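Dear colleagues,

As part of the handover before I leave the project, I'm documenting each prediction I ran so the next person doesn't have to rerun anything. This entry is a single chain, and its sequence is reproduced below.
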Amino acid sequence: MGQQQRGARAEIAPARLQILLGLGAATIFEAQGQKGAISPAIRAVDPGMRLVGRALTVTSRPGDNLMLHFAIDRASPGDVLVVDCGGFLDAGVWGDIMTLCAQQRGIAGLVVDGAVRDTASLAAMGFPVFSRGVCIKDTTKNQAGEINVPLDFCGVRIEPGDVIVGDRDGLVLVQQNDVERAIQVSLDREAKEEGVRAKIRAGQSTLQIMGLEKQVRELGIKG
């Protein structure tokens, strides 16, 4: 396996990506029709980490991080490295030195189905990393993988250039040609939820607002 050339990507203004980041992963997921959620097993290594960017997809052999070094070298500013290590957790494929190099190149973050290390340093450096686990063990650097190829990442298909949004709630995918729709439906959902909050402040319960009283009666719930 080897490198594939970067294909054409839909143009997305950085300001639009920041709107998605502000909306948050949970809102985007719900507004998209409960689509795009990436497995909750892939978590931020520090709860305050947030990321948004275009996916630079990578496949890497378990326990080897040569392709991650290669991806850093080939990445464009604003890219999020999305790395499939097959869920291997017995080696930390990313640490503080790679983070410094990624920051110098303007990379927006890392999402990896594998393990990382130096997590305290990653948090202090302000570089968002979402991983399946943490491991102090070292890696090899001698196995080829692929870059800029479609991934089946934890059951979600990710194309190079798709948008990844991550925060303490989790990770969500927005397809690169669907960004404007995702923004609009998410803004609509936020407006709707603000209306719900107003009703709660006015004294209504969620049971009443969501029309669940009939269901409670039909189920014979007493209390």
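Helices lie at 14-23, 25-31, 66-74, 96-104, 119-125, 179-201, 206-209, 213-219. Confidence is low (pLDDT under 50) at residues 1-6.

All the best with the project,
I.
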